[in-house]
Design brief:
The structure is a homodimer of 203-residue chains. Chain A has 203 residues and is an all-alpha fold. Chain A contains 9 helices and no strands. Chains A, B: InterPro entries: Homeodomain-like_sf, HTH-type_TetR-like_transc_reg, HTH_TetR, Tet_transcr_reg_TetR-rel_C_sf, TetR_C.
């Protein structure tokens, strides 16, 4: 009997999955977006095109998986702790830390191109947009809302504020400015978003 | 001598331009985005592909022109008046009117698909993003800022507020919610954005 489905097979499959995701990230970082095709990813990863299509239905799906794997790896480095936001007891300090880090992250060219590629796909693909919401956006939003709830309990935020709205008012301007490249993402800008959001939802 | 460059020639050129832009809008409204190609636009408009490429360098450029023409036609219907925002003297009332209309416009399927197509292009094309800012976004932003300035003078808005930031805090959440289809764009949502923005930038 062959042990094709045994531990060696699983290891090979996992190695090929990692090679495909790494190739995707590299290509997105290096090439104009229209050149990132399933063929190019397969060639870079040293696998056949069918190996990719057996696992993912489309280029969108591979790009999404590449981004998801980045965020899973980051989690693993943190000893599988779920994402949490800093909590020094002062909401303004903590949010400024987070928003400055977010502005820096978006300004990193490798991350910029990967997120831009993902956005291109989800804008035109409602199913992928839903998967993005469920697997990436919502877990992060829940972590942020936990921090906002503790601020509500500490009397630093309106106890009746709609926390989804608070997050939108805080993050969406930065996202739009980045997406449309309408102005630079500076630390001062990150701070001003925190300040206007806290004024809008003051206790 | 032929009068190829005379008035008849100009009229023919303008008719072909209008046919191409109309074909672009129809295709974007009807077809999945990857099927909207320069070939398909040429076929629908009844012109050769080269007629399109003589005028526009890329599919992105044609889509942008189609959207720009829509907004120029709207201007012309208003007797070439520049865009202005309603000014009843009450900023909250006026902004709610505008934001509800914006939410409705984004919910219109034909407009939705055209703006989504344009966004797909400008996300990956910095030059087109700059053209979008200059020709479409900035003139609208200037009209909105004129209304905000009159509210500052009337003591309804913080006189030191950065008006670009005010516009971002007001519009970006709606834009992001629409782009990511993360939640519905209701009139109540439009109102809540106006209210949180006015709290953030109260005098």
């Amino acid at each position: 009997m062959s042990n094709e489905k045994g531990p060696d097979h699983s290891r090979r499959k996992e190695r090929s999955r990692q090679a495909i995701l790494a190739a995707t990230r590299e290509l997105v970082a290096e090439e104009p977006y229209e050149k990132v095709t399933v063929e190019a990813i397969a060639a870079r990863a040293g696998v056949g095109k069918q190996t990719i299509y057996r696992r993912w239905p489309s280029k969108s799906a591979v790009i999404f998986a590449a981004l998801l794997a980045l965020s899973e790896n980051a989690d693993r480095q943190n000893d599988e702790q779920p994402v949490t936001l800093p909590d020094t007891g002062d909401l303004e300090t903590d949010l400024k830390l987070v928003m400055r880090a977010t502005a820096e992250e978006f300004a990193d060219p490798a991350f910029d191109r990967l997120i831009r590629a993902l956005n291109t796909e989800i804008v035109n693909d409602a199913a992928l947009a839903a998967e993005y919401q469920e697997k990436l956006a919502r877990p992060l939003d829940e972590a942020k809302k936990a921090r906002l709830r503790s601020a509500q309990e500490a009397g630093q935020l309106n106890p009746d504020a709609d926390l989804d709205l608070v997050l939108e008012v805080l993050y969406a301007p930065l996202f739009q400015r980045w997406l449309h490249r309408s102005a630079p993402l500076t630390a001062a800008y990150a701070d001003s978003l925190v300040e206007s959001t806290l004024r809008a939802f003051a206790p």
